[in-house]
Amino acid sequence: MGIDRRTRLAFAAAMMGLVVLNGEAAAQGEAKSEAPKGVVTLTASLKAKPGQEDAVKEALLSLVEPTRKEPGCLHYILHQSKTDPTLFMFYEQWEGQEALDAHGKSPHMKALGAKLKDKTDKGGGVVKYDLLK
After folding, report:
1. Strand 40-48 to 87-94 pairing
2. In what residue span(s) does the ABM domain sit (predicted)?
């Protein structure tokens, strides 16, 4: 069973985000190879319909500030592909599954569906990761 192109792109984007995060931390003398037990790390990606990139970007950007203020949010970083402006990806870390579940029930997340209605293509999704080292 092969891995489709979209999955490979999402994985590559996630890994690049990790490299950037770790590089910044190392430059500040804060690089660590361990996360506290129970931390949930994930990427969430989606694809805008052609011509809807700006509307999708605005909707996704509206999530960043309130989400970063949520209890248990460690990292919530939005990316847009340099080679395909229709691709967006969040790199997220949460103190635990309960914090992530609460995020999904937050008012700004509940409002997202209406903001993105008819503006995104199928594809994308959420991928959770385990820290290896």
Report:
1. antiparallel
2. 40-129
**Cβ(126)–Cβ(42) below 8 Å:** yes
Q: Which pTM value belongs to this model? A: 0.74
Neighbours of 125 (CB within 10 A): 12
From the number of C-beta atoms within 10 Å of its C-beta (0-12, 13-18, 19+), residue 47 rates as buried
Greater confidence, 15 or 74?
74
Beta partners for residue 77, in sequence order: 91
pLDDT digits (tens, 9 = 90+) for 11-20: 555 555 555 4
- Distance (Å, rounded) from C-alpha 2 to C-alpha 5? 9
**Which residue from 130, 131, 128, 80 is spatially nearest to 101, judged by alpha carbons?**
128
pLDDT digit string (tens) for 46-60?
A: 999 999 999 999 999
Structure confidence at residue 36 (pLDDT): 75
CATH class label, 39-129: alpha beta
